[in-house]
Amino acid sequence: MQWLNVIIQGVLVGGLYAMFAAGLALIFGVMRLVNIAHGDLIVLAAYIALLATESLGINPLAALVIVAPVMAAIGYALQRGLLNRTLGDDLLPPLLVTFGLSIIIQNGLLELFTADSRRLAAGDIEVASFPLIEGVSIGVLPLLQFAAAVAVIGGLQVLFYRTALGRAFRATSDDPAVAQLMGLDNRHVFALAMAMSLAVVGVAGVLLAIRTNFDPAIGPARLIFGFEAVIIGGLGSMWGTFAGGIILGVAQAIGAHINPGWQVLAGHLAFLVILAVRPEGLFPKVQG
Amino acid sequence: MPEPLLELRALDAYYQDFQALFGVSLDVGAGEVIAVIGANGAGKSTLLKSIAGAMRSRRDAIFFAGQPIGDWPAHAVVAQGIALVPEGRRLFPSLSVEENLLIGAQLRRHGPWNLARVYELFPALAERRRMPAPALSGGQQQMAAIGRALMSNPKLLLCDEISLGLAPIVVRDLYARLPSIVAEGSSVIVVEQDIVQALKAAKRVCCLQEGRVALTGLSTTLTRAAISAAYFGT
Predict the structure, then answer these.
(1) How much is the pTM?
(2) Do the chains contact at B133 and A185, CB–CB below 8 Å?
(3) Which of A214, B36, B108, B153 has the highest Cβ tally under 10 A?
(4) Touching check for B111 and chain A: CB below 8 Å?
């Protein structure tokens, strides 16, 4: 029963990791850009939510309505103004530029908000829970986060495979040169993809900030979790990424249960095992 | 004489230090079919890529409907009504046949072409609309590539080596559809290595040789000897 509890909690946390991963997978899929600043952008979203809740006195969950569009706007501007210039045949320039961006965001946040640990207070909902079966309770907040993750991932999947914008994303990903000949402006398509990615980052950042303490330095670790979930899941579909997040969450929960110090280690080990056994991930992209 | 739809004025094109086109001038009228022929490396594909905006040129080297578009990016050129069927077809492999066609209609230009009309022109595509593009045969892929270009309702359709890698019977079949495309009001430039096919399809022929126009004329009046001289250089 105890193990069942551990696994359920792990699955619920995994939803959050899946959301970290979804934004990464989206932009890598569309424009082969590895965004090293992804984790720091999650933290940035958390701080924007903090500002919004403190200045407007609204519930953190309501702050999502502000944070997601603001992050999307930042994403669009970032891509048009900076990252589009780094894209080309070489994978290195975007890597270096986003690495620099990561340092800038971390230190900017440190300057503005100090290194103090912060948290978003969501009120009673934080501790509310209901018993599932004897010995297993589910927190309302983790469940809500998990539901949000399912909704976000499902939404992205539909967007990718059922809408004109998703079609444009996939076409540009396949062959950017021909996509231009079809009237798609790559710079705009890439910027929309980054806006989408950072909107997801916004949601993930708010949910993270309600769940746990944050400070300007925790970004890189979120980036690693996101990366691991992407690699475990493979790049075949958004649901693969979702599965990757769940597997990482469960592995961490099991590790933490054996020894609290092993939480992160167990996640890395699960990642390494899958990387060794199935380097293409569990649900790889099928090449046509 | 009415203003030509497309007017090239001393068009040059470069790949870094290598010059591929030297002062190419050419007019294409509305509703006209022109064939551009020439040996490998004569600059035929470069010419189409320059017109389509995939390669930038001097602003006043290309006029389309009276507008200088030489330095426009490809996505702006197609919005004006020039669509390219690229060499080697270049369908989007992760999209279905129908999705490939819909990408062509991205700009929502008005005109005679839509999904239904393209399927009418190429019934083989209608049966395979849900299949991934790479699952089609070479000829069907070429149909999809042409259909994708038509979906933007171009005033000028550029076809790069439609016959490439296809059986002669398939090529004849594809060229047999060309009149229905022209009948809907599009001008067409076909680039071909297959001279016989090119002469049959087009009223006027332009032969490139090492990046220069070696010969232009009506396909009915040009002699074999003149074409051969322009093609190979003598």
Answers:
(1) 0.92
(2) no
(3) B36
(4) no
